[in-house]
Amino acid sequence: MTHQEPKVAIIDPNTLATLGLRQLLQGVMPMLTIDTFGSMAELTANHPEQYIHYFVAMNIVLENRAFFLQNRRKTIVLTLSLDSSKQLSEFHCVCINVPEKELVRSMLALLQMGHHGGNAMQPVAGRQQQKVLSDREAEVMTLIVQGLINKEIADRLCISLSTVVTHRKNIMEKLGIRSVSALTIYAVMNGYVDINKI
Questions:
Q1: Of 25, 19, 5, nearest to 182 (Cα)?
Q2: Which end of the chain, N or C, is less surrounded by CB atoms within 10 Å?
């Protein structure tokens, strides 16, 4: 018997938003299979019961309220407003109209809130067992995800600016990561930094 990865559905007619959210979710929760749908009809034609979560555009939730109320615990509404009076109080809402760093933080907070009685999903398998980064690289990574620029990192660690740049390059190559957002996700998922410090 093969182990099947948990599945998440994104239901949003905005293709660009869907692709961006899919990439972000794959970074935050790499253990998931993520399927995208442009409409409710596409979701219902593809066994909606198989998904552990639905990330859904607000207009689709409003048009299909009965379905999503039945699946309230699995539904995360994608909203454009941080104003709680403009969000659906029956559902967990995530504002997608924020800077990338804030959106990553929201997704990580959602992940840390947990699933099935408060147990958060497990970190990326294998990475925490083997030491990928040197101690100095881990220090540099932690400071990067906390928002420090190269000069501030150099001053904090009493190393040269070129050494920081080299460490930064090595970290990205070793982890196969190309953005600070993805690095932030890796650092939080693997316990290098607390979500409250980013």
A1: 25
A2: N
Residue from 83, 47, 42 nearest 60 by CA:
42
How many C-beta atoms surround the C-beta of residue 91 within 10 A? 22
pLDDT in tens, 107-151: 777 766 654 433 344 444 444 445 688 999 999 999 999 989 999
Strand partners, 95: 79
Residues near 112 by beta carbon (within 8 Å), at least 6 away in sequence: 120, 195
Q: Which two tokens stand for residue 93?
A: 């809402």
